[in-house]
Amino acid sequence: MSRGHTTAGHEYPEIPAETLLTVEDLRTTFDTPRGKLTAVDGVSFELEAGRTLGVVGESGSGKTVLSRSVMRLLPKRGATSTGRVRFNGHEMVGLTQKQLRGIWGTELAMVFQDPMTSLNPTMRIGNQITESLRYHLGMSSSEATEHAVVLLSSVGIPTPERRLHDYPHQLSGGLRQRVTIAIALACGPRLLFADEPTTALDVTVQAQILDLLAAQQRERSMAMILVTHDLGVVAGRTDDIAVMYGGKIVEQAPTKTLFAEMRMPYTEALLGSIPRADQPSHTPLQAIPGRPPDLVSPPPGCRFAPRCPYAQPRCRHEEPPLREAPTKGHRFACWFPVGTPEGRQALEENRVRGVALDPARSVTT
Amino acid sequence: MAEALVAIEDPAVLPDTVGVRQPRRFTVLFWIAVVWLVLIIALAVFASVLPLDSPTQVFACIPNSAPSWHHLLGCDELGRDMLSRIVFGARVSLEVGFTAVFIGLVFGGTAGLVAGYFGGKTDLIISSAMNVLLAFPALVLALAVIAFLGQSLRNVILILGLLSIAPLARLVRASTVVYAQREFVTAARMMGFRSRRILFREVLPNVMPSTLSFAIVAVAVAIVAEGALSFLGLSVRPPAPTWGNMIAEGSTYLSENAWLALCPAAVLCLTVLALNFAGDGLRSFFDVKDSAL
Amino acid sequence: MTTNDALLSVENLVVEYPVGRGRKVHAVSDVSFDVQAGETLGVVGESGCGKSTAGKAIVQLPRPTSGSVLFEGTDLVKLDGDQLRRFRPRLQMIFQDPVSSLNPRRRVEDIVGDPLSVWSAELESSVASKQERKAKVAEVLEAVGLDPVSAAGRRPHEFSGGQCQRISIARALVLEPKVLICDEPVSALDVSIQAQIINLLEAMKARFSLTLVFISHDLAVVRNISDRVAVMYLGKLCELAPSDVLYRTPAHPYTAALLASIPEPDPAIVPSTTGRLTGELPSSIDPPSGCRFRTRCPRAEERCAAEEPVLREVATGQRVACHFPLVEARPAAPANVASQQSA
């Protein structure tokens, strides 16, 4: 294996990993009737080959626009995107549509939330798979069909030969998502974007699809960016997690570090709002009050401050920078981080002052 | 605790995008359209008191003469003043176009709403009736109505109204089916609302915009169709002018003097465009999107 | 008539609809359960299991093929259109899609106030005048966490998904129903907003003394909000138990499989693939014979294909329809007796 450093048995930190994707100061704005909407606001991160990054945030946090910006899949009109995106040796910003078409599907592939809308309803699924094989890899029709059968069975579709002739509406939601994954994997991409791949599916199918993505990723030593609003989905399945809020990364860390030493109150709140099956019934949930910020005119200071139980006057006018935590690879943006003396003091002060924004939290803690 | 839980969303503390509304403004295009429509309607209403030649007087000027100071739009092949004919023609044409489509909207729209909302056998019966109406040859229908009821403007309107019922019913039915499946309709039924209330308060306002934009085009079609009937001697008898019969007559001279057909056609075209722009403008002014989600 | 004093009692509910050529979809097949006043009954299952259809059949939209739905002792199935209409204010429903469930062309005050103006005359309620209606709308909007002054004049598209769901809840509550059927009310929302809505439903339940039927595919959510949980699979009820019992000791293999698929928000727990459900949901046009879950069941034997398991009690309040349940029935437990378990 050429990228052996990602497999078990090697000391990961000692061998310099091959950086597959570098994003620097990415900024994407949309022109809206109300003004300029900054959906992604100065995001930087790196992704090494074969690794999985989870991007987590509420709707409106910019997580989907971020993935579209990296892929250069933005609408032609009204959207501007600046910054650097370096993927597998390509400078993605500034590439023409034609150059991008050579990268999409072959080196960079994607799986979307709704398999029904990402598949062409009037085309047999066999043709939808072979189309890209013939276009990108120059396969003959029979070769492509043969390969499509292999692909379909590798994503766990029973009787793939028969399924080739089906239309998308003849398949269940889970099978459809398997087909879109097969299409995405067809040309052996090095990076797979999965944007809420399981949100439209049942829990049982969700588990199957996430297992499938993990297995395929291991097999093909492909990197993956898993975009979701559910921390539960990414917890056991990613190497790193980036938490987005208001168009910015507010915390990023290796997955275990993030859960063990989370510093950003937003991450804590996001985790707290998930109902847990191991808690007794009627446990009050720690809801995050309010709603995400308006990205046309975001609040000054920290964007989470209006909803944050730790917020102090400083948070409302001074924006915290994304700074390094003691643990390697852990970054966060907060003046009063969770689990530090400052954070505890801030929380305590708010409690004393009775500014407990989140009543559920004060009940449970 | 219940109270504490409930008072989660405190507008004083939380940023609320809801507060920001974009200012609504009419575009220049909208105002141009409105001016044109007002002009056309005013001309039609006050045609008889305006200093115009009689639209039927032949040799008021040199036949086929180009526009001049006295005859702003020139003259037709019989030397009648084009401007006068267009102004007087507007009376008939606008009346025919709007009334016919109004008839279609009332009957076709109701049929479409009922068919789309109730579905099942009701839908089957109404849709079949509409298909029969669509399949019925328009000219035969026109001849039959004229034969039985006589030749008059009222009967022309009746014919064109009848003909516009089926297409409008189909359109309304199609969008009603979509909205009838939406959960707010189910919610309304759950509230115990009666069908009539649901149809007119919940469904109709949603179906209206697309129907009206189609109806505007239907007005133009009806105006031209009136011309065809007139050409066949089934409508207002020449020499009385209508936009339709001016286009129809002029089209026989297309190679010699295209102006005769193009001039009324251009007026018709501008009027329909103006109706569209005015309609669009009004719609975006009262714009109601689905949620921004 | 049954002997129990349940507020809502669903008996042998069957919903089928034709799909042409004489075939029909068996959406709900012979499902019975009770809902006690003041409790929350969760209904879980994958999409296509008939849980939403069952929820809609309870409110007779559309009417079930057969069976009965007893509400305070009255069989809703037997009522004619107008009689049923008079029962409507007492049974309300909220839906999954917060956007689709609100009319985009109407203002919030009309959406919430219309039920009042339609019913005020007929119910001779205290909200007969326009002022009183307005006050009532404001009260309910306030209760669901919206500012009545700024919200009343706005249309749904000016609100976020979570706020739209609050408006839906306000509309359902304005007639002060006894039963609120929640059909996947939080499935379309982000986790953070989902928690707000669940907390809100709990608060509303207490404030308006509601009885909830909470339909969802998310087991963690159902566990959180429910007193008892009914698990459905392919139109059949598999298991019905108090939620803490069901989650601690699931009796039906399908329940166990569902529980195994819940994603754990904890990186220490490596998702295991054991106990996962494999295969596809069979067609509800031609469901498997015997136990409908047998085609995907790890414990299935010949008996499961031949004989349909009936719902029987395996522990106090825990009933399961399985020949080989994961929890063995105590010998003394009489089979198939309606549980007298309370909330």
List the helices and strands and how they pair.
The complex is a heterotrimer of chains A (365), B (293) and C (343).
Chain A: E1 19-32, E2 35-48, E3 52-56, H1 63-71, E4 79-87, E5 90-91, H2 97-103, E6 108-111, H3 115-118, H4 125-137, H5 141-154, H6 160-163, H7 173-185, E7 191-195, H8 203-220, E8 223-228, H9 231-235, E9 240-245, E10 248-254, H10 255-260, H11 265-272, H12 313-317, E11 323-324, E12 331-332, H13 341-353, H14 359-364
Parallel strand pairs in A: 3-8, 3-9, 6-7, 7-8
Antiparallel strand pairs in A: 1-2, 1-4, 4-5, 9-10, 10-12, 11-12
Chain B: H1 2-6, H2 28-45, H3 82-118, H4 120-135, H5 138-149, H6 153-180, H7 183-190, H8 195-231, H9 243-251, H10 259-285
Chain C: E1 8-18, E2 24-35, E3 40-44, H1 51-58, E4 66-71, E5 74-75, H2 81-87, E6 91-94, H3 108-123, H4 130-143, H5 148-151, H6 161-173, E7 179-183, H7 191-207, E8 211-216, H8 219-225, E9 228-233, E10 236-242, H9 243-248, H10 253-260, H11 302-306, E11 312-315, E12 318-320
Parallel strand pairs in C: 3-8, 3-9, 6-7, 7-8
Antiparallel strand pairs in C: 1-2, 1-4, 4-5, 9-10, 10-12, 11-12
Describe the 3D structure.
- The complex is a heterotrimer of chains A (365), B (293) and C (343).
- Chain A has a domain of 72 residues.
- Chain A is built from 14 helices and twelve strands.
- In chain A, the strands form two sheets. Chain A has an eight-stranded mixed β-sheet with strand order 6-7-8-3-9-10-12-11, with helices on both faces. Chain A has a four-stranded antiparallel β-sheet with strand order 2-1-4-5.
- In chain A, helix 4 crosses helix 5, helix 5 crosses helix 7 and helix 7 runs parallel beside helix 8.
- In chain A, 34% of the residues lie in helices and 21% in strands.
- The N terminus and C terminus of chain A are likely disordered.
- The N and C termini of chain A lie far apart (49 Å).
- In chain A, a hairpin with a 2-residue loop joins strand 4 and strand 5.
- By secondary structure, chain B is mainly α.
- Chain B has one domain: Orthogonal Bundle (MetI-like fold), CATH 1.10.3720.
- Helix content of chain B is 67%, strand content 0%.
- In chain B, helix 2 crosses helix 10, helix 3 packs antiparallel against helix 4 and helix 4 packs antiparallel against helix 6.
- The relative contact order of chain B is 0.13.
- By secondary structure, chain C is an alpha/beta fold.
- Chain C is 31% helix and 21% strand.
- In chain C, helix 7 links the parallel strand 7 and strand 8.
- Chain C is globular and about 65 Å long.
- The chains are: A alpha/beta (365), B mainly alpha (293), C alpha/beta (343).
